[in-house]
Amino acid sequence: MKFTIKYLVSVRDRTGKREEELDFPEGSMLKDVSEWLQASYGLKLPDPGLMNTLNGKGWSQYPEKMSTALHEGDTICIFSRISGG
Amino acid sequence: MRVIRSASFHVSQEAKVQKHLPLLPSIPGGYHMPQKESRFLTRDELKRYNRQIILDGWGDDAQLRIRNATAFIAGAGGLGSAVSLYLAAAGAGTLRICDHGEVELSNLNRQIMHTNESQGKKKVLSAAERIASLNPHVRTVALDEGIDDHSIADLVADSDIIVDCMDNFETRYVLNRFAVERGIPLVHAGIYGMAGQITFIESPATPCLQCIFPEAPPPEVFPVVGATVGVIGSLEALEALKCLTGTGTLLKSRLLLFEGDIMKFEELPLEKNPSCSVCGGK
Question: Are B96 and B159 in contact (CB under 8 A)?
Fold first, then answer.
């Protein structure tokens, strides 16, 4: 099951790339992505300084939270919260 | 609350709205300002705004809508500078600019509404003077006040739109709650270094700020390159003008992220949160 993950703003500095396509087994969930991100880049989620979305909606807004299932073609975005003005 | 107005012409009308607010002397400028109710542009206005009036879909009608409009600009810093100057240049009728700070030397790399000579002045006073010199048709209501749940109704008053130029999420949440409650459009933006973000909120049609960012990021001293607030502030001003004139397509239910260091824009779709503590269920 292929999906896209984007690392935007300062998150890009930690991953060294802006986007990649991942291929996880069917039935994978957000917590699997979270574990993979920590193992691969040391990104520990949730992080109060970061925003994580799945198809435009914050991870925490999904009723199943970290147990939300991923689907083919999904897009995950991880980006820093921007507060200045 | 200190209230400073750019034209004595409108003081009495304003005083009706905010009877309890003390009035301070007017800022020079605004003497050519036509009455808000006028249905025609003056010869001077037709000439000043010609390059936007000739834009397809703009015309005299859109220009009159801008002139009759009031925008609440929350913050007279980096974003507030770009937003205020472009709305003033475009002929916004009234700008209610709110900021409780004074101009400091460390502001001047990005807050281009203020000058070297503005140091030590109240930002809203500096803003009112700058706007009066840029466009005397614009009325500036300078609000030297902090924004919280108690003060916001008087500060926003009869504004048609709220433009978020703040530097912290706590105050942004105040703006958002009020905008959702009163059904006022809200342009949200933020910046960090060479990056920025912007979205147009019009609840209940779009997600509100609390839907998009349920938790405030930790407070911090943020780095910023002045040109970044120029980019994002200009986009905010454009969204406000499109909203006020009814032209173009607004940035609704979309978050536009700007990564200036690699010069890329990313558009993220946004969804409402049905259980949002501010707009949920609406």
Answer: yes
Instruction: Return d(Cα A52, Cα A79) in angstroms, integer.
Output: 7
Residue among A8, A77, A85 whose CB faces B190 most closely: A85
Torsion sign, CA atoms B176, B178, B182, B186: negative
| pLDDT, tens digit (0-9, with 9 covering 90-100), for B185-215 | 999 999 999 999 999 999 999 999 999 998 8
Please name the residues between 51 and 80 in chain B that touch chain A, using a CB distance below 8 Å.
Answer: 75, 77-80
Interchain proximity A58–B218, CB inside 8 Å: no
Ordered structural domains, chain A, with CATH: 2-80 (3.10.20.30)
pLDDT tens-place string over residues B13-50:
343 334 334 333 344 443 334 445 578 999 999 999 99
The beta-carbon neighbor of A85 closest among B77, B219, B220 is B77
Q: What is the pTM of this model?
A: 0.90
Assess if residue B52 is contained within a domain: no
ipTM greater than cut 0.90: yes
